[in-house]
Amino acid sequence: MLANALQMAEMGGAALVVIMFLLWLVSVRIKNAGIVDVGWALGLVLLASCYAWRGPGYFARKWLFAGMVVVWGLRLAIHLVQRIAREPEDGRYQQMRRDWKGGNANFRFLFFFEAQAVLDILLSLPVLIAAVNPASNLKVLEYLGIILWLAAVIGESVADRQLAAFKHDPANRGHVCQRGLWQYSRHPNYFFEWFVWVAWLVYASASPWGWLALVCPALMLFFLLRVTGIPATEAQALRSRGEEYARYQQTTSAFVPWFKKSSAA
Length: 265
Prior knowledge:
By secondary structure, the chain is an all-alpha fold.
């Protein structure tokens, strides 16, 4: 079983390395590195589908998990493609280009793209664990994981739509979205994105060695809070929206949706 799991991960990983290289070539052509996020989401879709197809586990268990990943990944990829088509390159990647101006930015982005392939392999661990579990019948934890996943995907979709609608209005240009879920969290989309991984951990926990999947929500939380998520996004927001965003930071939770507090506090 372990050998089978490793073989599937190796096959999927090799395909992802090639796909990310091709996406990097596209990004150089269109001068927009934001396409890496599309590749990251679709990479997990590819791995989940491969695991469900080749995995020796119980049919319903592995394909339900793969279905959750496919729905999540396609929704996110479509949302990102639409944003790339109508907006300039994300400010985070523009800043990376400026930081790398002294060297070969495109070459450095190649390593960044390939790093996403490696990250996908690691983050696909929950679905791999479920895909090799032969036990018949779904467990309570798996049903709970599906319910939590539904709540997370709905929350993330609502947050994305609210922000897109706000940006679509020319009168809001240069201002901070504080409508809907954005009243209670500066990054509700990131919160619900992380919650997706919590749901998948719960689902994987019903399988042997499922506790290993704990690394995925932990890793996602680290990246969102400390690396490419909130820090980079807020740095760009402060550059583009200045004092208004600084006030927003004072009154609104950074991650977990919560009630506003006064700026004086």
